Amino acid sequence: MASIEQLHRREGVNLVQLEADIASVRTGSSIASIALPDYVEHTAGVTRVGALSAEAVIRDYESAAKEIEAMGTELIDAAQKCEALTAQVHDAIAFMRETAAGYREEGRKIFKRIEECALFTEDVRKTCEQIKRRMAEVSVGESPEPELAEQEPEPNGIAVRALLSEIH
Hints:
- There is one protein chain.
- The protein is an all-alpha fold.
- The protein has 5 helices and no strands.
- The protein has helices spanning 2-9, 15-28, 48-140, 146-150, 158-167.
- The protein is rod-shaped, with a radius of gyration of 51 Å.
- The termini are far apart.
- Mean pLDDT is 80; it is low at 1-7 and 28-33.
């Protein structure tokens, strides 16, 4: 508490000495090389201490504003990278859709081929049964019933085309 009491006991602050101290610090620092921004100017009649304090504050604000602008530039760069990535994602999605469509088309072809094979197999089975019956009828002899002899089952469908292609 002794130091606080000493402050109260002082007569006053020597403004001339304070100004001289600030001026000596200002000329020797890198802050002195920074010009004031265009959007401020000193008011006529302001004391030297007030002008120096205002300069220090505006320089801090200007420095912060420049850092904010730099962050904006970084944000623009990030947004451009994001846009490029988004374009790549759209290309990848289009490729996936094309691939899926190709798989569906291939599946459709295989589905149709399997069903065609099943139909062909059924035709072959029916044809084989008909041929077996005819062979049995021929080996046994003429059928006693003339109606059955006249009604010879004939192969049809894919099996007929296969048999005809073998004959020719």
